[in-house]
Amino acid sequence: MIAAACSSDSGDTTTTAGDGGDTTTTSEAMGDGVPIGMAYDIGGRGDLSFNDSAAVGLDRAAADLGIVPTELEPSAGGENREENLRLLAEAGNELVFGIGFAFAEALGAAAADFPDTSFAIVDDASLADVPNVTSLVFAEEQGSALVGAAAALKTETGKIGFVGGVDIDLIKKFEAGYEFGAKQINPDIQIEVTYLTSVPDFSGFADPAKGKEAATAMYEGGADIVYHAAGGSGAGVFEAAKDYSEANGTHVWAIGVDSDQYNSVSDDLKPYILTSMLKRVDVAVYSTISSYVNDGQQSGVVLF
Question: Residue 182 in 3-state DSSP?
Answer without folding.
Answer: helix
